[in-house]
Amino acid sequence: MTAPQYTPVTEPLPLARELIAAASVSRDSNAAAASVCEAALLAAGFTLERGVYRDARGVEKVNLLARLGPDPSPDRPGFVWLGHTDVVPANDWTGPGGAFEPTVTDDRLYGRGACDMKGPVACAIAAAARLHAASQQPGGEPLTAPLWIGLTADEEIGFEGAKELVTRSTAYPELRQANPPGIIGEPTSLTAVHAHKGSHLLTATARGVAGHSSTTDGVNANLKLLPFLTDLLPLIRRTETDPALQNPTFDPPGLSWNLTLSDGGTVLNITPERATATIYSRPVPGVDDGPLVARFHALAAEHGLESTDDRHAGPFRTHPNAAYPVSVRRLLNQSEPRTVCYGTDGGVFAGPTDRGGGGLTNLLVLGPGDIAQAHTAAEFITLDQLARGCDLYETLFRRYCL
């Protein structure tokens, strides 16, 4: 059987449009978007591993890990570009066209994922296609080091695709062993980011008994939660004020312990049987939040509550003065190192291997598009950012792979 033939895509806009049209909201499968990427990567000469898994609801998800060029060597480890193909919901879309109907107007590409991050994905694949096309020309330069492109699912809901990739992919160990410099392609307006916060979910649950509020048959779970909240407040305030829990290179510098409450109740004359207090924490590089988390669980136990702990991903940091970050900032004419408070798959890919992380220690977050546009009701990326992003990635790919 003859393998399918694909036309290489060397400009990002057509591919970005095709990806936006392949709807891949995280609650649904990303298989259609992954297939678009797979075809484009194969056309660009990559060999590819397609990893399929099912999420907690049984929905099929697809990861891709592709490689172009020769095997890595100690002195030529290559380069890696990492991104995701899932997007957030678009139920409130107000932009031109539909959320999954890519529309170009006023030098902008609109659509869900245009900025976060189907635009950047298109830039990376198109840049790689240019590199491969040039190498195939008479007198063209062959790659002397490998280029990897990794694309995950479920980045928007707990980084589950990245976790699957680093723990279950048969192709990933080679990448981990090579440990090349690389990019997490989230939108940064094409500035280099060397560190971001992590993602950590803490939950305390009170159990009551449902009953009609006109009787004494019920036990209100909210009332069981109140004493715990009283004791928890000083702990939250400490995260805002204790210098030991701050990293001044971030704004805000702390762990951002955001408290939300829920009892699931919709009927006012029924006592709620379950109430939860949830802390969404953003761990900061260089700060040990272990004692703080232990105190959260201890307080929950003291008040007879159940507690859970789900560390989605740790913080991400590459030393800003290492050779690779410095060289990229010089290329960008960027004078100062930069950090951001949002998270990426970098917390997984750069995480220590003894905690299930990917062990890649030489990464930066760097992508086209303004993060202020991500997840918005009229998400867009400018055509200028698309063009410049593709050119920048091509420059980096050439620098480290030719």
Briefly, what is this?
Its EC number is 3.5.1.16. The chain has helices at 12-21, 31-43, 114-136, 160-168, 172-178, 221-241, 290-302, 323-332, 346-349, 383-401; strands spanning 47-54, 60-68, 79-84, 103-105, 108-110, 147-152, 182-184, 195-196, 199-207, 258-262, 274-281, 306-313, 316-317, 339-340, 363-365, 380-382.
Derived from helix and strand composition plus strand pairing, the structural class reads alpha/beta
According to CATH, the fold-level topology of the largest domain is Aminopeptidase
**Biggest sheet overview:** 6 strands, mixed
Low-pLDDT residue intervals, each spanning 5 or more residues: none
Alpha carbon gap, first and last residue? 33 Å
CATH architectural grouping of the largest domain: 3-Layer(aba) Sandwich
Number of strands: 16
Shape: globular
